[in-house]
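A further point concerns the way the authors explain their paired sequence and structure data. An entry of this sort, consisting of the sequence and the corresponding backbone structure tokens, reads as follows:
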Amino acid sequence: MRELGRLFRAYCSNKHSSWPLQIDQIESLLNCVENESTGFTPHELMKGERPTQLIESLIPFPIRRDFEHRIKILLARENFKSAARKRKAKHDTKVKAVKFKPGNLVLVKTHNQSSSFDKTIKKFFHLYEGPYIVIKEVGVNAYVLNDPETNHYWGTQNVENLRPYFT
């Protein structure tokens, strides 16, 4: 589940051994967030009622139509099927290869390893580091990069390890 990885990276990237302390908070957060595929929160589907959220007492939100629990389950199934069709259609369209030009800023995928000695966990590291400056293209799928702070050669990276950096 991608969300778990994202949340643990956000909460535990500075101290990896703190992840057990975050489980209750992350579980509560995920159970109260509307699922994109079903259109309902897990709490709502399991308990039949919307979870109360602190922010709703502070900011007026539009009134949401409340359905009977069995109707919610049926709607969630239909929403899930519809989302699956949309994902398949998106997947079936070919994605164009990313091309970078000299001067573009990019992030580089990290390949960190877990270490019991350092008490670090691979899943809690940031996925990318940077930004770095593209200096030139080498072949059709590799780029020479420089560190923008020192302007020193940083290395040659395959395009698969790069993603655009947006400021």
Observations:
- The longest helix spans residues 69-92.
- The mean pLDDT is 85.
- The radius of gyration is 22 Å.
